[in-house]
Specification:
The complex is a heterodimer of chains A (about 200) and B (about 475). Chain A has one domain: Aconitase, domain 4. Helix content of chain A is about 30%, strand content about 15%. Chain A has eight helices and seven strands, in the order E-H-H-E-H-E-H-E-H-E-E-E-H-H-H. Chain A is globular. With about 475 residues, chain B is an alpha/beta fold. Classes of the chains: A alpha/beta (about 200), B alpha/beta (about 475). The structure holds iron/sulfur cluster.
Chain lengths: ~200, ~475
C-alpha cells in the first residue's frame, strides 16, 4: 500500500451531501478484476457529457483543480455500496485525501486500506476550508498525517483526529493482513474454544 | 454478574479474539459469502502474497451481480468484462477449493437470498460479504455486514477483521400494520425518520411487535435496508420463526445438534435491562405505503404526499441537494406523487426478491393486464421453482410481465437489464441513487405490491385505492 505522510496540493470543493459510491464509480466500471485503471471513470456520470466530452462545470475538470490531491465534500461521503472500487478510482485519479463532515462507515474503512486519507471535520470548519479552496490554484493546503495537521493556504494550522492504528498503518504503508497473521496462535486458540461451544460451525 | 447486554454486545463479545492496544478488537468471522464483483482482487492479493485460505469451509461463492436473466443465459455473454468476472470467480473457487454454486445451478441467486436458503446464515454468527446489503442476514440474529475487497482478503487469510465496537441503536416499531403496508414500507419509513446517515457508527436492533409479527422474508427486507439508514448491520433477535425457517436447510445443524444450537441461540436476545446508545420509537399505525421521490433513500414520503419544495428545507446545502435531486428526477415541487407516470417496473433484488414478494405481486395482478414494461426477477433459483410450483409464473406472464432468471438484474444494472436515460422506474430494490439502474435512470423505491399497482396503472399508485 502507498504510504501517506504529508501532501501539499490545491483542494477541489465539491460541497454536495450524500456523494454515494455509485456517483464515485458507476456500476458499469465495476466489471474489472484489477485494482488499477479506474481513475478515468471516477465520477463518470457527472464528469463527462453523453458524447464523452468533459462537463465544463464539474470541479475536477476545471484547470485549477485537475491535479488536486484533496477533495472537500459534504456530509455522508461514500454512502452506499461496499465497493472498494470507490477508493481505487479516487486514488487512481490522483486524489489522496477527502475532507468531509462525515463519511459512511464502509467507505471510511476501505479508504485507509488504499492510501486514501479521509478526514472528518465539523461543518463550520469545512465551510471555511471551502472558501479557501474556491481560490483555486492560489490556495495550497498541506495535510500532515504524522502530526495530524492541516495547514491552510494562509498558514493557519487545524488539527484533526484519526484512529492511531489506522494512522500508523497508513504512515508506514503497512498491510494489516501481515500484522494479523502474526496473531495466528490467538486465532487458533479462539477456534479451539468455539468448536467446543458451537460444534455446528465446524462441519 | 455481568451487566445487561444487547444482542449485538453478546455476539460481539463472543467473537473477540483479542483486544488490541489501539482500542480496536480482532473479531472472529464465522461465515463469508463471495460473489464475482468484489472477490477477484482479493484472490489475486492472496496469490501475490503466497497466502492461503484459513478455513475454506466457511466460504460460500455464488455469481449474481453480472449474470444475464434471460432464458438463454448459459450461452449469452452480455459483455466481455462480465464474462471475465464470472469466469474468474469460477476459476478462483476451483483453484482454492471454495464451495461454489454455478450460474446454471437451481440454487444460484442473489448472495443474500442464497445464504439463508442454504442454512449458511445462522443466529449468533458473524457473517460478512463484499457487499453492503449483507445486513440482510441480520434478520436471523447474525451480526452481518458488508466489507471492502481488502477486508475480503483479510478474512480469507486470517478468518478475522480488525474492528471498532459500534454503538447500539434501537429502533422499535410496535403495533399492527395497516392494510397495504408491508415490511418495505416500514424500512422506508424508518429511513425517512432517521436519515441515510442516522445509523452511521451504529448497529441497529429492530425491536417491537411489528418485527416479531413479520415473516422471515419481511424481516430480511427490513434488515436489508439497515445500510440505507447508514448502519453497517441490522439485527432482529432470533425466535421460533427463525428456527422454523432454518430447520432442515442443507447447511443447518441437524437433529440433536439443532436442539443444542437453539438453546444457545435463545440465550442471545437482548437482556431486558440492556442499555442502547440511542432509541427511536415508531407507531406502526402511523406508517402508510411509502415511495421515494429523490436520489437518496431518505427522500421518501407517504404515497399520499406531494413533491416537496427545496425552499422549505433548512440550510443552503440541503436546499441545493434537494433541487439537484428534483432536477435529476425531472420532477416539480407540488406534484402529487400519484400523478407521476412511470415507464418501467422492476420487481426483484435482495430487498424484495423472495417468495413472499412474488406472492404479493401475484395477488395484485392476478387476472389483470399491466400497461408498462415490467420485469419480475426472482431472487434465486429456489424462489423461481417455488413460484412456478405455485403457478405464480403463469399469473405474471398472463398479466404481461417478463418472468426472468435469478440475479441482481435491474437493481444495479450491471447486466443487460437497464432503465434507459430519463426513464422512470417503480422499483422494489433499495437504492435510488443517480444512475443506479442505468445512466440517468430515475428510480422510485416502493414495495412489491405498490410496484405491481404502478405496473397496472402506469402511474405511482396508492395500493389501498386500486
Ligand atoms: S440485488 Fe441489488 S442490492 Fe442486492 S446484492 Fe444485488 S446489486 Fe446489491
Amino acid at each position: 500500500m502507498d504510504k501517506f505522510t504529508k501532501i501539499s496540493s490545491v483542494a477541489a470543493p465539491l460541497p454536495i451531501t450524500n456523494i454515494d459510491t455509485d456517483m464515485i464509480i458507476p456500476q458499469n466500471f465495476l466489471r474489472t478484476i484489477e485494482r488499477t485503471g479506474l481513475g478515468k471513470h471516477a465520477f463518470s456520470n457527472i464528469r463527462y457529457n453523453d458524447d464523452g466530452s468533459e462537463q465544463k462545470n464539474f470541479i475536477l475538470n476545471q484547470p485549477a483543480y485537475r491535479r488536486a490531491q484533496i477533495l472537500i465534500a459534504g456530509e455522508n461521503f461514500g454512502c452506499g455500496s461496499s465497493r472498494e472500487h470507490a477508493p481505487w478510482a479516487l486514488t487512481d485519479f490522483g486524489l489522496r485525501c477527502i475532507i468531509a463532515p462525515s463519511f459512511a462507515d464502509i467507505f471510511y474503512g476501505n479508504s485507509f486500506k488504499n492510501g486514501l486519507l479521509p478526514i472528518k471535520l465539523p461543518q463550520d470548519i469545512i465551510d471555511s476550508l471551502i472558501k479557501d479552496a474556491e481560490r483555486g490554484a492560489n490556495a495550497v493546503f498541506t495535510v500532515d498525517l504524522e502530526n495530524l495537521e492541516i495547514t491552510r493556504p494562509d498558514g493557519e494550522v487545524i488539527g484533526f483526529e484519526i484512529d492511531p492504528f489506522r494512522q500508523h498503518c497508513l504512515v508506514n504503508g503497512l498491510d494489516d493482513i501481515g500484522l494479523t497473521m502474526e496473531r495466528g496462535e490467538k486465532i487458533s486458540a479462539f477456534e479451539k474454544e468455539q468448536k467446543i461451544q458451537q460444534p455446528w460451525l465446524y462441519k | 454478574m455481568t451487566s445487561p447486554r444487547t444482542l449485538y454486545d453478546k455476539i460481539w463479545d463472543s467473537h473477540v479474539v483479542e483486544e488490541q492496544q489501539s482500542g480496536n478488537s480482532l473479531i472472529y468471522i464465522d461465515r463469508h459469502i463471495i460473489h464475482e464483483v468484489t472477490s477477484p482482487q482479493a484472490f489475486e492479493g492472496l496469490r501475490t502474497a503466497g497466502r492461503s485460505l484459513r478455513r475454506v469451509e466457511t466460504i460460500l461463492a455464488v455469481p449474481d451481480h453480472n449474470v444475464p436473466t434471460t432464458a438463454d443465459r448459459e450461452t449469452r455473454v452480455d459483455s466481455i468484462e462480465s464474462k471475465t468476472q464470472l469466469d474468474a470467480l469460477e476459476r478462483n473457487c476451483k483453484e482454492f477449493n471454495v464451495d461454489y454454486i454455478p450460474m446454471m445451478d437451481a440454487r444460484q441467486g442473489i448472495v443474500h437470498i442464497v445464504g439463508p436458503e442454504q442454512g449458511f446464515t445462522l443466529p449468533g454468527t458473524t457473517l460478512v460479504c463484499g457487499d453492503s446489503h449483507t445486513s440482510t442476514h441480520g434478520a436471523f440474529g447474525a451480526l452481518a455486514f458488508g466489507i471492502g475487497t481488502s477486508e475480503v482478503e483479510h478474512v480469507m487469510a486470517t478468518q478475522t477483521l480488525i474492528l471498532k465496537r459500534s454503538k447500539n441503536l434501537r429502533i422499535d416499531v410496535s403495533g399492527p400494520l395497516g392494510s397495504g403496508v408491508t415490511a418495505k414500507d416500514v424500512a422506508l419509513a424508518v429511513i425517512g425518520k432517521i436519515g441515510t446517515a442516522g445509523g452511521t457508527g451504529s448497529v441497529i436492533e429492530f425491536t417491537g411487535s411489528t418485527f416479531t409479527n413479520l415473516s422471515m422474508e419481511g424481516r430480511m427486507t427490513v434488515c436489508n435496508m439497515a445500510i440505507e439508514g447508514g448502519a453497517r448491520a441490522g439485527l432482529i433477535a432470533p425466535d421460533d420463526k427463525t428456527y422454523d425457517y432454518i430447520k432442515g436447510k442443507p447447511k443447518a445443524p441437524k437433529e440433536a445438534e439443532f436442539e443444542v444450537a437453539v438453546k444457545y441461540w435463545n440465550s442471545l436476545k437482548s437482556d431486558p435491562e440492556a442499555k442502547y446508545d440511542n432509541e427511536v420509537f415508531i407507531n406502526a399505525f402511523d406508517i402508510v405505503p411509502q415511495v421515494t421521490w429523490g436520489t437518496s433513500p431518505e427522500d421518501v414520503l407517504p404515497i399520499t404526499g406531494i413533491i416537496p419544495d427545496p425552499m422549505n428545507f433548512k440550510g443552503l446545502d440541503k436546499k441545493a441537494s434537494i433541487k439537484r435531486a428534483l432536477d435529476y428526477m425531472g420532477l416539480k415541487p407540488g406534484t402529487k406523487l400519484t400523478d407521476i407516470k412511470v415507464d418501467k417496473v422492476f420487481i426483484g433484488s435482495c430487498t424484495n426478491g423472495r417468495i413472499e414478494d412474488m406472492r404479493a405481486v401475484a395477488a395484485v395482478v392476478k387476472g389483470r393486464r399491466i400497461v408498462v414494461q415490467a420485469l419480475i426477477v426472482p431472487g434465486s433459483g429456489l424462489v423461481k421453482l417455488q413460484a412456478e410450483h405455485e403457478g405464480l409464473d403463469q399469473i405474471f406472464i398472463d398479466a404481461g410481465f417478463e418472468w426472468r432468471e435469478p440475479g441482481c438484474s435491474m437493481c444495479l444494472a450491471m447486466n443487460a437489464d437497464k432503465i434507459l436515460p430519463q426513464e422512470r422506474c417503480a422499483s422494489t430494490s433499495n437504492r435510488n441513487f443517480e444512475g443506479r439502474q442505468g445512466p440517468k435512470s430515475r428510480t422510485h423505491l416502493v414495495s412489491p405490491a405498490m410496484a405491481a399497482a404502478a405496473a397496472l396503472r402506469g402511474y405511482l399508485t396508492d395500493i389501498r385505492e386500486l
